[in-house]
Design goal:
This protein is of the alpha/beta class. It has five helices and ten strands.
């Protein structure tokens, strides 16, 4: 089977998980990992993983299936970075949805869902690990069940909800609130890509949170 993985950001941490999965499939499937829509050559399955480009019908028709991995319980939580918004709002479980790509964002038929418990003490890298391992699990599901799995239409659009794209200001810490009040926000901020920060005495400071494991 010819499979393509499209992840727009070459520095995105999910790439390491995708490459590890590709290594497990050597000699079984023909797989490539690309960063741009212009690099797509067609095949059986196209997986969109943290893809920021619009993949139109002309491109999707190059594949038998174009599948999106989206970290919300669709149709709730369409849009950008849903699992981050949900954890910031106190969620202890996030849902990963495997669905077909359509012109209308996150509206396609659902292939599978997977619930992911997220401990209240999990930091950004631990959350990433839980999510990316689940993404690989659903990629495996799609490949192993290709042509046999049934798809489910999403509920009426009136039940849908949407998250906006996160911007740097969404990682801003309020110096007048306690750490405990803002812990869910601080712990989801990737210090390398989207650092938490606060402003004090005329300067901006970044904040890095690390877990110290008791011996």
């Amino acid at each position: 089977m010819k499979i393509t993985l499209l992840c727009s950001d070459v520095k995105h941490p999910v790439n390491a998980y995708l490459r590890d999965w590709m290594d497990t499939q050597q000699g079984v499937h023909e797989i490539e990992l690309v960063q741009r829509k212009s690099d797509l050559a067609g095949g059986e399955i196209l997986f969109l993983v943290s893809c920021s480009e619009i993949i139109d019908i002309k491109v999707r028709d190059m594949y038998l299936a174009t599948l999106v991995l989206h970290a919300s319980d669709l149709p709730k939580g369409r849009g950008w970075s849903p699992h981050i918004w949900e954890i910031v709002n106190g969620a202890e479980t996030i849902t990963l949805t495997l669905l077909e790509a359509e012109d209308k964002v996150d509206s396609g038929r659902i292939w599978q869902k997977l619930d992911i418990p997220v401990p209240k003490n999990a930091l950004w890298n631990e959350i990433n690990n839980l999510l990316f391992e689940a993404e690989v699990e659903l990629i495996n599901f799609a490949v192993q069940n290709f042509g046999t799995t049934s798809q489910v239409l999403q509920e009426a659009s009136g039940n849908a909800s949407y998250y906006p794209k996160r911007t740097p200001v969404d990682s801003r810490i309020d110096v007048n609130k306690s750490i405990a009040e803002q812990f869910d926000l601080i712990r989801v901020c990737d210090p390398n890509r989207f650092p938490a920060y606060f402003e004090h005495l005329g300067f901006r400071y970044t904040l890095k949170l690390e877990k110290i494991h008791e011996q």
